Automatic annotation (TrEMBL):
Keywords: Cell outer membrane, Membrane, Signal. Residues 294-550 form the RagB/SusD domain. The keyword Signal applies. This is RagB/SusD family nutrient uptake outer membrane protein. The lineage of its organism: Bacteria, Pseudomonadati, Bacteroidota, Flavobacteriia, Flavobacteriales. The keyword Signal applies. Residues 96-213 form the SusD-like N-terminal domain. InterPro entries: SusD-like_N (IPR033985), SusD_RagB_dom (IPR012944), TPR-like_helical_dom_sf (IPR011990). It is found in: Cell outer membrane.
């Protein structure tokens, strides 16, 4: 059935400079509808860079944190910020929510940018091998954006043709057709024509295309329109990523978060950022997730906001369930992912007891000011023991929307000042440990828990406390889908996978109701996809169908 759609064309953002061989978003280039824009080699190259730019307004920004982490079993809301409707699943989660509109518009802009390059490349005179490479890149990107569309919105508009003006004819194409016509053929073309590596860090590669196709097939394998070979093909593709290239797991999980070691052997595909560009505001985006997962340390005794500890926006806090997932006696990943001690960065005089507040000894700069023991270790902190130390202690029963364990994966101590919101970290979209866990999931889909356990144990062995390697290992009987989702949380917490993981596996509603008290009263089965943006519906001649459950 034909429907109507309104697509706004905007000036494309192009990656026209490089720093440390990374793509950096810098200059505005001409509208993609200009008739001669992509008829030259330089124009095509700029157009390809502009297609990559579609990642930047989403990944590493607050929009992706809200849409990918809120409203799940492991993350709930902190005290500050907006867009909590993604956690509450209340009436505010509708087509008028700005992040719904922004994500839809952004991904379709990227798709149209890719369509323009694919459609016009035949008229560009340049080396044919290089042209084929660039086409493989944009088809990889187009597949990525369509994969985001179907996993976020479900059935949606499909077009493989460039829009050069206001387009009002549209369709609401089934997910199965978008997989069949766009995602899978684009990624198969990319795999056939992309190199194993690229000199420009952040460009698409063959293993990145194999990873994405594996994830797309694995996602489809849960659907009613799945093909019987989806899980086995996904397993093969993840095996290719694991075995056929130069990737390797870092020996120490904590080293993944060393800001001076970002281009490491575990990275398959990232959205790169550059310190010089984000510090100078040439790049208006950068990585902002260092802001969102921190508790309110900066108003506590002995503390003031500084660069090393981060700017605490208090957006996302762990659920109680999340904090039960790690056995810290055998697993290092909680300790490497969360911060435990804050050292005084200002002097505090001794205080006398006042009411229920105990007397406190003076704090000098460098003394312990705040201690959050976290789950499972040193948890016996009754008030009598807290009163005996000069620093503040927050144990499990004292967490609230302002005080909670703070994730430190994205902390950026290299920012030029404490107020700076843009950080230089790359946003990780694919890393090798995730390939192992996705391959385990593909094996589990094929009723192979032994193979799944083998892959999970590779990841758990890397994370083991020294001397506890044997204790860290699991048996095939331990593996089911819930265990695998728990393992993905232990490894990938705060990396933007949780909402997609739960929707892919059909576990969103069940696990969110069980473990997220703020979300559980309102979440319904239809929340496994987001609402269609209201402006898409309002501006389309004849309307555009809203997803079931949401108000039209």
């Amino acid at each position: 059935m034909n429907r109507k759609i309104y697509i706004l064309l905007v000036l494309a953002l192009a990656f026209t400079t490089k720093s440390c061989d990374k793509f950096i978003e810098e200059e505005l280039v001409t509208d993609v509808s200009a008739a001669s824009y992509y008829t030259t080699e330089s124009g095509l190259e700029d157009g390809v860079r502009a297609t990559y730019s579609t990642f930047k307004p989403f990944y590493g920004q607050e929009i992706s944190a809200a849409m990918l982490t809120f409203g799940t079993d492991i993350w709930t809301n902190g005290a500050d910020g907006g867009h909590k409707v993604f956690n509450f699943y209340d009436g505010g989660l509708n087509g008028a929510e700005s992040y719904i509109t922004d994500s839809w518009d952004n991904w379709y802009k990227g798709i149209n940018q890719a369509n323009a390059i694919v459609n016009r490349a035949a008229d560009v005179e340049m080396d044919e091998a290089k042209k084929t490479l660039r086409l493989a890149e944009v088809r990889f990107l187009r597949a990525y954006f369509y994969f985001n569309i179907v996993t976020t919105f479900g059935d949606a508009h499909l077009s493989l043709e460039e829009t050069e003006g206001v387009e009002v004819e549209a369709n609401k194409t089934s997910q199965s057709e978008i997989y069949a016509q766009a995602i899978i053929p684009d990624l198969e073309y990319a795999i056939a024509n992309l190199p194993d590596e690229q000199s420009d860090y952040g460009r698409a590669t063959k293993p990145a295309a194999e990873f994405l196709l594996g994830k797309a097939l694995l996602t489809r394998s849960y659907q009613g329109f799945a093909e019987t070979s989806d899980a086995s093909r996904a397993e093969t593709l993840f095996s290719n990523v694991i075995n056929n290239y130069n990737f390797s797991l870092l020996p120490n999980f904590a080293d993944l978060w060393d800001i001076d070691n970002q281009e490491n052997s575990e990275m398959v595909f990232v959205v790169p950022n550059s310190k010089s560009q984000v510090d100078s505001d040439v790049d208006p985006f950068g990585h902002r997730w260092h802001l969102y997962f921190l508790h309110e340390y900066d108003v506590r005794r002995g503390m003031t906001r500084d660069i090393a500890n981060g700017r605490p926006w208090k957006r996302h806090r762990p659920t109680d369930f999340m904090l039960t997932l790690w056995d810290r006696s055998v697993d290092t990943r909680y300790d490497a992912s969360f911060k435990h001690v804050w050292y005084a960065n200002k002097e505090e005089p001794a205080t006398d007891a006042v009411g229920e507040e105990p007397a406190r000894a003076a704090l000098a700069i460098g003394d312990t000011a705040i201690y959050i023991p976290g789950p499972g270790k040193d948890v016996d902190w009754p008030q009598s023991r807290q009163n005996e130390v000069p620093y503040l202690v927050y144990s499990n029963d004292e967490y609230n929307e302002r005080l909670f364990p703070s994730m430190n994966k994205w902390i950026d101590p290299t920012r030029p000042d404490r107020q700076k919101v843009n950080g230089q970290r790359d946003f990780i979209l694919m890393r090798l440990a995730d390939a192992y866990l996705l391959r385990a999931e593909a094996k589990l889909q094929q009723n192979n828990p032994s193979g799944a356990a083998d892959d999970i144990n590779v990841i758990r062995l890397r994370a083991a406390v020294p001397g506890q390697e044997a204790a860290s290992q699991i048996a095939p009987a331990d593996v089911d889908l819930d265990f695998l989702l728990d393992e993905r949380a232990r490894e990938l917490v705060g990396e933007g996978h949780r909402w997609p993981d739960l929707t892919r596996t059909g576990k969103l509603v069940e696990r969110t109701r069980l473990y997220n008290p703020q979300a559980s009263p309102n979440i319904q089965d239809y929340h496994t996809v987001r609402p269609i943006p209201q402006n898409q519906i309002d501006r389309a001649l004849g309307g555009y169908p809203q997803n079931p459950g949401y108000p039209q």
